[in-house]
Q: What sequence folds into this?
């Protein structure tokens, strides 16, 4: 049971708290983390209609790009956290 609680609080990113761990939220670490994510995603929607496609398709594409970028950042954070524990 303690392994589950450790994972739930320290590794699992919760959708209800912007995909950070409860530990990150309680320690305040989430502020810097969310700022880095916001900066990384900020440039991805510079010109949503640059390819001449419809706005709806462009916005869907941007959302997908943001999601993919979010996943990459999350994986990097998890890898770094794993390195710190070793």
A:
């Amino acid at each position: 049971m303690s392994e589950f609680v450790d994972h739930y609080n320290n590794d699992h990113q919760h959708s209800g708290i912007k995909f950070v761990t409860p530990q990150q939220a309680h320690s305040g670490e989430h502020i810097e983390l969310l700022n880095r994510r916001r900066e990384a995603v900020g440039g991805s929607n510079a010109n949503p209609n640059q390819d001449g496609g419809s706005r709806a398709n462009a916005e869907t594409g941007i959302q997908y790009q943001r999601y993919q970028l979010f996943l990459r950042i999350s994986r990097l954070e998890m890898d770094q956290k794993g390195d710190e524990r070793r």
